[in-house]
Amino acid sequence: MTALSITNQKRAYTDRPEIEGATDVPLFMRIIGVIMAATWLFSGVAEASHLPDRSTYSAPKASATIRVDGVADDAAWAEAEWREIKYRWLGPEYTAEDFNGRFKLVWTPERIYILAEIEDDILFDGHRDPLVQYWDDDCPEIFIDEDYSGGEHQFNHNAFAYHMSLDNRAIDIGSDGKKREYTDHTESRWRQQGDKVIWEVAIEIYDDSFVDDSEENEPVKLSAGKVLGLMVAYCDNDGSELRENFIGSESVPTGPKDRGYIDAGLFGKVVLHE
Ligand SMILES: [Ca+2]
Ligand SMILES: [Ca+2]
Ligand SMILES: [Ca+2]
Ligand SMILES: [Ca+2]
Protein backbone atom coordinates (compact mmCIF):
# COMPACT_ATOMS: atom_id res chain seq x y z
CA MET A 1 0.00 0.00 0.00
CA THR A 2 2.72 2.42 0.95
CA ALA A 3 6.46 2.37 1.20
CA LEU A 4 7.37 1.14 4.64
CA SER A 5 10.90 2.07 5.47
CA ILE A 6 12.25 -1.16 6.88
CA THR A 7 15.82 -1.11 8.07
CA ASN A 8 17.93 -3.78 9.67
CA GLN A 9 19.28 -1.35 12.17
CA LYS A 10 19.09 -2.94 15.61
CA ARG A 11 19.94 -0.82 18.57
CA ALA A 12 19.63 -2.29 22.01
CA TYR A 13 17.66 -0.14 24.41
CA THR A 14 17.98 -1.42 27.92
CA ASP A 15 16.51 1.44 29.88
CA ARG A 16 12.90 0.27 29.60
CA PRO A 17 11.38 -2.73 31.28
CA GLU A 18 9.62 -4.82 28.66
CA ILE A 19 6.93 -6.92 30.22
CA GLU A 20 4.15 -6.06 27.83
CA GLY A 21 2.74 -9.16 26.13
CA ALA A 22 2.93 -12.17 28.34
CA THR A 23 3.52 -15.05 25.95
CA ASP A 24 7.18 -16.06 25.82
CA VAL A 25 7.66 -14.06 28.99
CA PRO A 26 8.96 -16.07 31.94
CA LEU A 27 6.51 -16.68 34.77
CA PHE A 28 8.46 -14.52 37.19
CA MET A 29 8.16 -11.56 34.81
CA ARG A 30 4.42 -12.07 34.62
CA ILE A 31 4.28 -12.18 38.38
CA ILE A 32 6.27 -8.93 38.51
CA GLY A 33 3.67 -7.38 36.18
CA VAL A 34 0.83 -8.38 38.47
CA ILE A 35 2.72 -7.18 41.56
CA MET A 36 3.39 -3.83 39.83
CA ALA A 37 -0.27 -3.45 39.05
CA ALA A 38 -1.33 -4.47 42.55
CA THR A 39 1.17 -2.07 44.08
CA TRP A 40 -0.25 0.85 42.14
CA LEU A 41 -3.84 -0.15 42.50
CA PHE A 42 -3.69 -0.54 46.26
CA SER A 43 -1.14 2.11 47.17
CA GLY A 44 -2.28 5.31 48.80
CA VAL A 45 -1.36 7.17 45.60
CA ALA A 46 -4.11 5.47 43.62
CA GLU A 47 -6.84 4.91 46.17
CA ALA A 48 -9.54 6.24 43.90
CA SER A 49 -10.55 4.32 40.79
CA HIS A 50 -8.60 6.75 38.60
CA LEU A 51 -5.52 8.91 38.82
CA PRO A 52 -6.23 12.60 39.42
CA ASP A 53 -6.61 15.00 36.48
CA ARG A 54 -7.99 12.56 33.91
CA SER A 55 -9.21 14.35 30.80
CA THR A 56 -12.87 14.38 29.82
CA TYR A 57 -13.81 14.00 26.18
CA SER A 58 -17.31 14.80 25.02
CA ALA A 59 -17.97 12.58 21.99
CA PRO A 60 -20.75 13.49 19.55
CA LYS A 61 -22.97 10.93 17.89
CA ALA A 62 -22.07 10.55 14.22
CA SER A 63 -24.74 12.30 12.19
CA ALA A 64 -23.77 10.41 9.03
CA THR A 65 -22.05 7.17 8.14
CA ILE A 66 -18.28 7.08 8.46
CA ARG A 67 -16.40 5.16 5.82
CA VAL A 68 -13.38 3.51 7.48
CA ASP A 69 -10.92 4.07 4.63
CA GLY A 70 -8.11 6.27 5.95
CA VAL A 71 -9.68 9.38 4.41
CA ALA A 72 -10.98 11.94 6.87
CA ASP A 73 -13.54 13.59 4.61
CA ASP A 74 -16.59 12.11 6.35
CA ALA A 75 -18.95 14.85 7.54
CA ALA A 76 -19.17 13.38 11.06
CA TRP A 77 -15.51 14.13 11.79
CA ALA A 78 -16.16 17.86 11.53
CA GLU A 79 -18.39 17.60 14.63
CA ALA A 80 -15.71 16.26 17.00
CA GLU A 81 -12.89 18.02 18.84
CA TRP A 82 -9.24 17.10 18.50
CA ARG A 83 -7.43 15.69 21.52
CA GLU A 84 -3.62 15.77 21.56
CA ILE A 85 -1.40 12.70 21.96
CA LYS A 86 1.31 14.57 23.80
CA TYR A 87 2.43 12.89 27.04
CA ARG A 88 5.84 11.22 26.69
CA TRP A 89 5.58 7.93 28.56
CA LEU A 90 8.81 6.28 27.35
CA GLY A 91 11.95 7.26 25.49
CA PRO A 92 13.93 10.48 25.07
CA GLU A 93 12.66 13.90 24.05
CA TYR A 94 11.49 13.88 20.44
CA THR A 95 10.87 16.46 17.74
CA ALA A 96 7.54 17.26 16.08
CA GLU A 97 8.97 15.72 12.92
CA ASP A 98 9.74 12.48 14.79
CA PHE A 99 6.23 12.28 16.21
CA ASN A 100 3.19 14.46 16.39
CA GLY A 101 -0.29 13.09 16.86
CA ARG A 102 -3.88 13.81 17.75
CA PHE A 103 -7.23 12.05 17.56
CA LYS A 104 -10.98 12.61 17.66
CA LEU A 105 -13.88 10.34 18.48
CA VAL A 106 -17.53 9.94 17.48
CA TRP A 107 -19.98 7.11 18.09
CA THR A 108 -23.00 5.22 16.82
CA PRO A 109 -25.10 2.74 18.84
CA GLU A 110 -22.94 -0.05 17.40
CA ARG A 111 -19.39 1.30 17.60
CA ILE A 112 -17.06 4.10 18.50
CA TYR A 113 -15.00 5.63 15.70
CA ILE A 114 -11.53 7.06 16.19
CA LEU A 115 -9.71 9.25 13.70
CA ALA A 116 -5.99 9.54 14.41
CA GLU A 117 -3.76 11.98 12.57
CA ILE A 118 -0.14 10.96 13.00
CA GLU A 119 3.09 12.49 11.79
CA ASP A 120 5.95 9.99 12.06
CA ASP A 121 9.18 10.42 10.08
CA ILE A 122 9.76 6.67 9.53
CA LEU A 123 7.08 3.98 9.41
CA PHE A 124 8.62 0.80 10.72
CA ASP A 125 7.38 -2.76 11.00
CA GLY A 126 10.36 -4.66 12.34
CA HIS A 127 8.33 -7.69 13.43
CA ARG A 128 6.14 -8.77 10.53
CA ASP A 129 4.22 -11.26 12.68
CA PRO A 130 1.62 -9.06 14.42
CA LEU A 131 1.82 -11.22 17.56
CA VAL A 132 5.57 -10.72 18.02
CA GLN A 133 6.68 -7.64 20.02
CA TYR A 134 3.73 -5.78 18.55
CA TRP A 135 4.30 -2.83 20.90
CA ASP A 136 7.81 -2.40 19.43
CA ASP A 137 6.53 -1.63 15.92
CA ASP A 138 4.85 1.62 14.93
CA CYS A 139 1.45 1.10 16.44
CA PRO A 140 -1.45 3.19 17.65
CA GLU A 141 -2.71 1.76 20.93
CA ILE A 142 -6.36 2.32 21.85
CA PHE A 143 -7.30 1.65 25.47
CA ILE A 144 -11.00 1.14 26.24
CA ASP A 145 -12.74 0.51 29.56
CA GLU A 146 -16.43 0.00 28.78
CA ASP A 147 -17.73 1.19 32.16
CA TYR A 148 -14.94 3.57 33.26
CA SER A 149 -14.39 1.31 36.26
CA GLY A 150 -10.62 1.71 36.31
CA GLY A 151 -8.75 -1.15 37.93
CA GLU A 152 -6.43 -3.89 36.79
CA HIS A 153 -6.93 -5.39 33.32
CA GLN A 154 -3.73 -7.11 32.24
CA PHE A 155 -5.06 -10.68 32.02
CA ASN A 156 -8.80 -9.99 32.04
CA HIS A 157 -11.32 -7.95 30.08
CA ASN A 158 -12.13 -5.28 32.61
CA ALA A 159 -10.62 -3.16 29.82
CA PHE A 160 -8.93 -3.69 26.45
CA ALA A 161 -5.67 -2.34 25.04
CA TYR A 162 -6.01 -2.71 21.28
CA HIS A 163 -2.61 -2.48 19.58
CA MET A 164 -3.37 -1.61 15.94
CA SER A 165 -0.74 -3.17 13.70
CA LEU A 166 0.37 -1.70 10.38
CA ASP A 167 -1.61 -4.45 8.66
CA ASN A 168 -4.77 -3.28 10.44
CA ARG A 169 -5.07 -6.03 13.02
CA ALA A 170 -5.84 -5.52 16.72
CA ILE A 171 -3.78 -7.35 19.35
CA ASP A 172 -4.14 -7.58 23.13
CA ILE A 173 -3.45 -10.09 25.91
CA GLY A 174 -6.15 -12.67 26.59
CA SER A 175 -7.34 -13.83 29.99
CA ASP A 176 -4.99 -16.83 29.58
CA GLY A 177 -2.05 -14.40 29.55
CA LYS A 178 -1.38 -15.03 25.85
CA LYS A 179 -1.24 -12.53 22.99
CA ARG A 180 -4.33 -12.68 20.82
CA GLU A 181 -5.98 -11.07 17.86
CA TYR A 182 -9.13 -9.08 18.56
CA THR A 183 -9.29 -7.88 14.98
CA ASP A 184 -12.94 -8.92 14.75
CA HIS A 185 -13.82 -6.18 17.28
CA THR A 186 -12.39 -3.57 14.94
CA GLU A 187 -12.28 -2.15 11.46
CA SER A 188 -9.06 -0.30 10.69
CA ARG A 189 -7.66 1.49 7.65
CA TRP A 190 -4.87 4.04 7.26
CA ARG A 191 -3.44 6.05 4.39
CA GLN A 192 -0.70 8.60 3.98
CA GLN A 193 -1.81 12.12 3.10
CA GLY A 194 1.22 14.32 2.55
CA ASP A 195 3.35 14.03 5.68
CA LYS A 196 0.50 12.61 7.77
CA VAL A 197 -0.90 9.16 8.37
CA ILE A 198 -4.69 9.29 8.60
CA TRP A 199 -5.86 6.27 10.57
CA GLU A 200 -9.54 5.44 11.04
CA VAL A 201 -10.63 2.71 13.45
CA ALA A 202 -14.16 1.58 14.32
CA ILE A 203 -14.44 -0.50 17.50
CA GLU A 204 -17.25 -2.56 18.97
CA ILE A 205 -17.35 -2.11 22.74
CA TYR A 206 -17.28 -5.23 24.91
CA ASP A 207 -17.78 -5.19 28.66
CA ASP A 208 -15.94 -7.14 31.36
CA SER A 209 -18.14 -10.23 30.81
CA PHE A 210 -16.26 -10.89 27.56
CA VAL A 211 -14.92 -14.45 27.38
CA ASP A 212 -12.12 -15.38 24.98
CA ASP A 213 -13.15 -17.96 22.35
CA SER A 214 -16.82 -17.82 23.39
CA GLU A 215 -19.52 -17.57 20.72
CA GLU A 216 -21.80 -15.75 23.18
CA ASN A 217 -20.03 -12.37 23.39
CA GLU A 218 -22.23 -9.45 22.39
CA PRO A 219 -20.99 -5.89 22.01
CA VAL A 220 -22.62 -3.26 24.22
CA LYS A 221 -25.27 -1.04 22.62
CA LEU A 222 -24.14 2.57 23.05
CA SER A 223 -26.40 5.49 23.90
CA ALA A 224 -26.15 9.15 24.88
CA GLY A 225 -25.00 9.68 28.45
CA LYS A 226 -22.82 6.58 28.56
CA VAL A 227 -19.38 7.01 30.12
CA LEU A 228 -16.36 5.01 28.96
CA GLY A 229 -12.68 5.02 29.85
CA LEU A 230 -10.35 5.72 26.94
CA MET A 231 -6.84 6.76 25.98
CA VAL A 232 -5.03 6.75 22.67
CA ALA A 233 -1.28 6.30 22.45
CA TYR A 234 1.36 5.72 19.80
CA CYS A 235 4.37 3.42 19.94
CA ASP A 236 6.98 5.11 17.73
CA ASN A 237 9.86 3.05 16.40
CA ASP A 238 12.04 4.37 13.58
CA GLY A 239 14.32 1.35 13.18
CA SER A 240 15.36 0.09 16.60
CA GLU A 241 14.91 -3.33 18.21
CA LEU A 242 12.60 -1.81 20.84
CA ARG A 243 10.22 1.10 20.46
CA GLU A 244 11.93 4.47 20.84
CA ASN A 245 9.01 6.43 22.24
CA PHE A 246 5.61 5.71 23.71
CA ILE A 247 3.38 8.77 23.77
CA GLY A 248 -0.16 8.94 25.12
CA SER A 249 -3.18 11.16 25.49
CA GLU A 250 -3.27 11.05 29.32
CA SER A 251 -0.69 12.20 31.83
CA VAL A 252 0.87 9.63 34.15
CA PRO A 253 2.03 11.68 37.14
CA THR A 254 3.11 8.74 39.32
CA GLY A 255 4.39 5.22 38.81
CA PRO A 256 5.49 3.43 35.64
CA LYS A 257 4.26 5.55 32.74
CA ASP A 258 3.75 2.64 30.33
CA ARG A 259 1.35 0.71 32.56
CA GLY A 260 -1.84 1.51 30.65
CA TYR A 261 -2.00 -2.13 29.49
CA ILE A 262 -2.30 -3.11 33.18
CA ASP A 263 -4.04 -0.20 34.91
CA ALA A 264 -7.32 1.23 33.56
CA GLY A 265 -7.11 3.93 36.25
CA LEU A 266 -4.97 5.94 33.84
CA PHE A 267 -7.69 6.22 31.23
CA GLY A 268 -9.52 9.44 30.49
CA LYS A 269 -13.28 9.79 30.63
CA VAL A 270 -15.41 9.79 27.47
CA VAL A 271 -19.00 10.97 27.70
CA LEU A 272 -21.23 10.14 24.73
CA HIS A 273 -23.72 12.83 23.74
CA GLU A 274 -26.31 13.22 20.97
CA1 LIG B 1 -13.21 7.98 6.15
CA1 LIG C 1 9.31 8.75 14.47
CA1 LIG D 1 -14.21 -2.01 33.22
CA1 LIG E 1 8.06 5.40 13.46
In short:
This protein is 6% helix and 31% strand. The chain has 274 residues and is mainly beta. Residues 120, 122-124, 138, 236-238 line the site of one calcium ion.
Total number of domains: 1
Order of helices and strands: HEEEEEEEEEEEEEE
Total beta strand runs:
14
Kindly identify the CATH topology. Answer: Immunoglobulin-like
> Which residue ranges are poorly predicted, with pLDDT under 50 across at least 5 consecutive positions?
1-19, 21-25
Tell me the span between the first and last alpha carbons: 36 Å
Mean pLDDT: 88
In the CATH scheme, the class would be: Mainly Beta
Structure description:
By secondary structure, the protein is mainly beta. It has one domain (5-273): Immunoglobulin-like, CATH 2.60.40.1190. Helix content is 6%, strand content 31%. The protein is built from 1 helix and 14 strands. The protein has one helix at residues 27-42, and strands at residues 56-60, 83-85, 87-90, 99-107, 112-120, 139-145, 160-164, 170-173, 179-181, 186-193, 196-203, 227-236, 245-248, 268-273. Strands 1, 3, 6, 7, 8, 9, 12, 13 and 14 form a 9-stranded mixed β-sheet that branches. The chain has a 5-stranded antiparallel β-sheet with strand order 2-4-5-11-10, with no helix packed on it. The longest helix is centred in the N-terminal third of the chain and has 16 residues, at 27-42. It is globular. The protein starts with 26 loop residues before the first helix and ends with a strand. The model is unreliable at 1-19 and 21-25 (pLDDT under 50). The chain binds calcium ion (4 copies). One calcium ion (CA) binds next to loops.
